[in-house]
Amino acid sequence: MLIVPEALIASLVSPEDAFRAVEACFAAMARGEAYNFPVVREALGEGRQYGFKSGLDRAAGQLGVKAGGYFPGNAAKGLINHQSSVFLFDPDTGRPVAMVGGNLLTALRTAAASAIAIDRLARPEAQVLGIVGAGHQAGFQLRAAARVRRFERVIAWNLHPEMLPKLGAVAAELGLPFEPVDLVRMREAEVIVTITSSPAASLLVRHVSPGTHLSCMGTDTKGKQEVEPTLVAGASVFTDEVAQSITIGEAQHAVAAGVLDASAIVPLGDVLIGKHPGRQSEGEITLFDGTGVGLQDLAVAAVAVQRATERGLGIDVGV
Ligand code: NAD
């Protein structure tokens, strides 16, 4: 078994690698070659959450689990709040193949999913990117979005405005003008990424213009919410996995309120394999409910293991 520690991941897996790996995994899901197992998520007390996301991709030969969660006391210890590790197993024998640091991989695979949705669903000429949120994931989201559209500027809102300069620094690195704005000015954006841990909707119908694409990435647990249910109900809704979207994703609220039928939600993989056309009109609002699936974690972890093996990196513990 190979151990690929967190410190090696940045040198092994690029945003481009993550984009390709997640695209392949969503397509495999749509073809019925890969599926996710039910998510386990438990509250540990004092705001700590712990859980498991797992699955099997028969086409790619990947079986495994990501174990991890959210530990709000970490920031004070100089650690990021989300901590995770991915374990890969041989799908034929069940023997352990690798243990891989999952923190950077989570950010890369989450940003990749959002960017794949932008790439496939946003209007090609989109010039203004809006970001709601400015935490650890937001910079990754900005970088990934900028890879798939030629944005001219970035506008951003965060409940805690003191966090916005860090996101502004990422925009500056990319050569993009950056402006903190009120939510109502999100109407200027053609693409909006939401990436907060909010328990109630921030982005409302009146904050979004017709024709916008939304990648809603923050809601990955029951009880979180970033977007007004009427906005979700009025959009063409796409997701990584419908079962997760209606239980732990952004669509949980619109479905529970009876304003959105689960059968109207389209797996993004269907667009990738040509089974669904994606955006069908200029004025349509498209919304990607990115809940984060275990197969995404396995896909990027497998890239890390392959690269580490090729380069003789990692620690082989010989099991
Ligand atoms: P973080 O703790 O670094 O940042 C949290 C963000 O949420 C900040 O912008 C903060 O200002 C904002 N926020 C906190 N409370 C809020 C409230 N009440 N209303 C509005 N905004 C509020 O977290 P992060 O690592 O950047 O992750 C952001 C979210 O994305 C989390 O909910 C996390 O669980 C989720 N996430 C989803 C996936 C996925 O695959 N979909 C993957 C990783 C993280």
Notes on the protein architecture:
By secondary structure, the protein is α/β, with parallel strands linked by helices. The protein has two domains: 2-106 and 295-316, ornithine cyclodeaminase, domain 1, CATH 3.30.1780.10; 122-292, Rossmann fold. The protein has ten helices and 16 strands. Strands 1, 2, 3, 4, 5, 6, 7 and 16 form an eight-stranded mixed beta sheet that branches. An eight-stranded parallel beta sheet has the order 10-9-8-11-12-15-13-14. The chain starts with a strand and ends with a strand. The model has no long low-confidence stretch (mean pLDDT 97). It binds nicotinamide-adenine-dinucleotide.
Topology:
Layout: E1 2-4, H1 6-12, H2 15-30, E2 34-36, E3 40-45, E4 48-57, E5 62-70, E6 82-89, E7 96-101, H3 103-121, E8 128-132, H4 138-148, E9 153-157, H5 164-173, E10 178-180, E11 191-194, E12 213-216, H6 229-233, E13 236-239, H7 242-247, H8 251-256, E14 266-267, H9 268-272, E15 286-289, H10 294-311, E16 315-316
Parallel strand pairs: 1-7, 8-9, 8-11, 9-10, 11-12, 12-15, 13-14, 13-15
Antiparallel strand pairs: 1-16, 2-4, 3-4, 4-5, 5-6, 6-7
Helix pairs in contact: 2-3, 2-10, 3-4, 3-10, 4-5
The rounded Rg comes to 19 Å
Mean pLDDT: 97
**Number of spatially distinct domains:** 2
| CATH-derived architecture of the largest domain | 3-Layer(aba) Sandwich
Helix content: 25-40%
CA(first)-CA(last) distance: 5 Å
Strand content: 15-25%
What is the CATH third-level topology name of the largest domain?
Answer: Rossmann fold
* Global geometry: globular
Mind telling me the CATH class of the largest domain?
Answer: Alpha Beta
Computed structural class? alpha/beta
Instruction: Find the count of extended strands (DSSP E, 2+ residues).
Output: 16
Small ligands present: nicotinamide-adenine-dinucleotide
SSE arrangement, N to C: EHHEEEEEEHEHEHEEEHEHHEHEHE
**Total helical segments:** 10
CATH homologous superfamily of the largest domain - what is it? NAD(P)-binding Rossmann-like Domain
Largest sheet: 8 strands, mixed
Given as residue ranges, the uncertain stretches (5+ residues, pLDDT < 50) are: none
